[in-house]
Structure formats: structure tokens, C-alpha cells
Amino acid sequence: MSSEFVRSTALPHLEARRSCQENTCYRPHAHDAFSVGLVEAGTSVFTAPSGDTVQLRAGDVVVIAAGQVHQCNPRRGPWQYQMVHVDQEWAAAQAVGTGAGPLLKGVTVLRDARAHQRFLEWSELLFSRQPDGEGRAAEAETIQRGFRGLARALAEAAPVHTVLGGGDDALLERVLPVLQRLRDDETNPRLDELARLVGLSRFQLIRAVKSATGLAPLAWRQDQRITRARHLLRRGTPVTEVAHTLGFADQSHFHRVFRAHVAATPSTYRG
């Protein structure tokens, strides 16, 4: 397993990765960013928020809106891929006039040579040496221009698979106190206690949270913790401090959970 990460000096919210994996490496998870990925080699199985699976092959491009629970793992043998994450609002602003608006919701799988090529061009730009100081404005403009070109190509490609975004808003509002407790409480709240907060049984709560978010309560909590961990690590926070801040039992536990969500160690991710 190997992973390489790069972040833009001009657009701090942007993160790109190149990875080669061979074993099952991802639990169901979501990103708090708009994501575009490309399969470079091998095959993998992508599980959409609906639970549907799509067999991905080299050249496929996957577009994932922020907050969409998904999972992707190698099918047989090595699987090489790239993924770029950007702020959802930034992506929406850049996509105006490109026809890519519908791609900002849900999950879309594309199998299109032009979209493939535009992604590679944009990714190569991101992985090239980043200028500092006065070059940042020019860098940001170049990245924006590359993203708009990619967005046009994505919009013109015929989707292989599409899952519309959006959960059950009424349920989300109902379980919001539970989600706030799961997110903010460093302890591990009992399901019975959480269920009482919103007047549901333990099993009703599990079903409600999964319908609203795509994940069961404790899985949602872990996913949120890892999202926070990524932000802290990108700022340069030491791994031990991140593990302590987020209430993990020890660094080893944090390491295991982080790898299951990110397919890289916290140290590799921090850089």
C-alpha cells in the first residue's frame, strides 16, 4: 500500500492524492468536500450511498458530492487511483456556466476519454511544484481554469451510474441532538441514552440515523472524528495531540481507525 498527498499553497482547501492499494482498505465514509477520482489501473468495487455497487475499471471517473457516504476497494490485485478534494462551495462557484451543476449532488460514475484526459491534466498540475509568495495568485487562477475545463468535460460525458444526493430531512432534524452529542462528546455515549434524547427506541434510533446520514450512529461518530483529524493533521498538529484531542483511547487505536477511513497512516497523511 502506498499513498502520496499534495496540498495547494494557493487554495488551502484543495487536497490531491495518488494511491496504489491491493487489499480491502476503506470502510464506508464521507468527505466534507467535493471529490473527483480516477481509476488509473486495475479494477475496484464502488459502493454508492444507496448500497448499489459499480464495477470500476481503468479510466473511470467518479464524482462525489460532499457528505455522500461511499466505499471503494480493490476487486482483484493492485488498484491504482487518484482523488482530488476541494471545498464544495468553491467547486459550485467554479462550475457556474459549465453545465456541471447536477454533478454537485449525489454520486456519478463516468466512462469517458475526454473526462479522463482533463482529470489527468488537472492532477498533473496539482502534483507539479507549487510556487510560493507572489506566485500564489497565478497558481490559484491556473487551478481554477483547470477545474473549469474538467467540469465542462464531466458535464458533457454520459454517466454510467448516478445516485441522486439528499437524505431524509425530517429524520435529520429529528436526530440532530443525537448527532451533536456524538460529534462533540469525547466519551462513547450509550445508544440507549442517545435514543432517549429524541424519544426513540435503540433500534429506531439506529435506523433513523442511518436513513438520515447513510451511517449507523457510532460509525457516523467515527467518520466525523476522522474528518476532524484530517483537518488537524493538515495544519501540522502532531499525531499524538490529534489522538488525544479527539478522545481516542490511545495512539494505536487512532492509527487503526484512521487507516480504515483514509487508507494511509496519520503520519503519512500529515506529511
Q: How would you describe this structure to a colleague?
A:
By secondary structure, the protein is an alpha+beta fold. The protein folds into two domains: 2-163, Sandwich (Jelly Rolls), CATH 2.60.120.280; 169-270, Orthogonal Bundle (Arc Repressor Mutant, subunit A). The protein has ten helices and ten strands. It has helices at 88-95, 113-127, 136-156, 169-184, 191-197, 202-213, 217-234, 239-245, 251-262, 266-270, and strands spanning 2-7, 15-21, 34-41, 44-47, 53-56, 61-64, 71-74, 79-86, 107-110, 159-163. Strands 1-2-8-3-6-9-10 form a seven-stranded antiparallel sheet. Strands 5-4-7 form a three-stranded antiparallel sheet, with no helix packed on it. α2 (113-127) runs antiparallel to α3, α5 packs across α6 and α7 packs across α9 (251-262).
Which key features would you list for this structure?
Arc Repressor Mutant, subunit A; 2 domains; AraC_XylS_family_regulators; AraC-bd; 3-stranded antiparallel β-sheet; 271 residues; Jelly Rolls; transcription; 7-stranded antiparallel β-sheet; alpha+beta
